[in-house]
Automatic annotation (TrEMBL):
Matches recorded under InterPro entries: FPG_cat, FPG_N, H2TH_FPG, Ribosomal_uS13-like_H2TH, Znf_DNA_glyclase/AP_lyase
Domain FPG-type: 279-313
One Pfam family matching this protein: Fapy_DNA_glyco
Superkingdom of this protein's organism: Bacteria
Biased segments, Gly residues type: 124-148
BP GO terms, sorted: base-excision repair
Family affiliation: Belongs to the FPG family.
Protein name, per record: Formamidopyrimidine-DNA glycosylase
Coiled-coil regions, chain positions: none
Boundaries of every Formamidopyrimidine-DNA glycosylase catalytic domain copy: 20-139
Organism of derivation: Compostimonas suwonensis
């Protein structure tokens, strides 16, 4: 695999990529787990100190430790390194790229380059006695893969990427506030019904996106879930038991189908797969795949959402306050 291939292409902003959500982070974690499990950290370099949100333990404490696990908390990636955790949230424009060899020196000033941080791995012992078996070394005791690892980048001028080194993932404020994971076996239709009743008259689109209520669903998959459930994004969260059951089934179907499509993909392929699998999100002006009506959008100050009037709002376009103000 050439340098830069593999773990790349998650994030990137805009309708083509957007924020990595539960299905993409789930697949990314699986890919990272295959690449990083059992490897030893040589060092972790911070290029953009604005991205680092913690200072104790220091990033230098990762050096020499073995990567024990890669897991997910909502949209957070958690790399277990010895007794510590390297936690990342890619935000809107975050990106992770796999390197097969030693990294080149960073170019440009901090804040003026997309490179935010760099994970550098120690080499693996060669031969069959090595921890993972380096090909072609024949037990010579040489090392293979020294310098390989991850480049963590963030495009654009608005910097929201967050990196933490902690002893316990719960020390990360965003993880501590997370609601239940919709793919957890304990998340049932009754769980969702209770959440919806507690949310009352709040709009269902906002409830689905609120990470403190349900973890991992963002702008894109909330659009998709509501389209499958045939519900308006502005519908109050408090709904009948039958409607809550329909929403639960739509949530499970949408998320699990997205994960199934991403199964086994390298992360460099995830953004393209996400876009190709979306029914309404990012498809303003296209025909609805269910009824053929034109997909519409509502614009907010920092985001948009898409929906089908026939499938979701009884054929009535939703008011777009931003567009209405522009037309006045």
């Amino acid at each position: 695999m050439r340098e830069g291939a593999g773990v790349a292409g998650v994030g990137g902003g805009g309708e083509d990529g957007g924020v990595p959500e539960l299905p993409e982070v789930h697949a990314l974690v699986a890919d990272l787990g295959r690449r990083l499990g059992g490897r030893t950290v040589d060092r972790f370099d911070i290029v953009s100190f604005a991205a680092l949100k913690t200072f104790d333990p220091p990033v230098s404490a990762l050096a020499g430790e073995t990567i024990e696990s890669v897991s997910r908390h909502g949209k957070f990636i958690d790399i277990g390194v010895g007794e510590l955790h390297l936690v990342m949230h890619l935000a809107r424009a975050g990106w992770i790229r796999w390197r097969e060899g030693p990294p080149p020196p960073p170019t440009g000033r901090a804040g003026k380059t997309p490179l935010a941080a760099r994970l550098v791995l120690a080499g693996e012992s060669g031969g069959a006695s090595g921890p993972r078996g380096a090909s072609g070394r024949g037990g010579t005791g040489e090392t293979d893969g020294a310098g390989a690892g991850l480049d963590i980048t963030e495009a654009g001028t608005k910097k929201s990427l967050a990196i933490y080194v902690v002893r316990d993932p719960a020390e990360v404020p965003g993880i501590a506030r997370l609601g239940p994971d919709p793919l957890d076996p304990g998340f049932t239709a009754q769980t969702l019904a209770g959440i919806l009743q507690a949310a009352g008259r709040s709009q269902i689109k906002g409830v689905l996106r609120n990470q403190a209520i349900i973890a991992g669903i963002g702008n894109a998959y909330s659009d998709e879930i509501l389209h499958v459930a045939m519900m308006s994004p502005f519908k109050p969260a408090s709904m009948t038991p039958e409607e809550a059951g329909r929403l639960f089934e739509a949530m499970q179907l949408t998320l699990r189908d997205a994960i199934a499509r991403s199964e086994g993909l390298a992360a460099s392929e995830l953004k393209k797969e996400k876009k190709s699998g979306l029914r309404v999100h990012g498809r303003t002006g296209e025909p609805c795949p269910v009824c053929g009506d034109t997909i519409r959008q509502v614009i907010y100050s920092d985001s948009t959402f898409q929906y089908c009037p026939t499938c979701q709002t009884g054929g009535k376009p939703l008011a777009d306050r931003v567009l209405s103000r522009l037309l006045k």
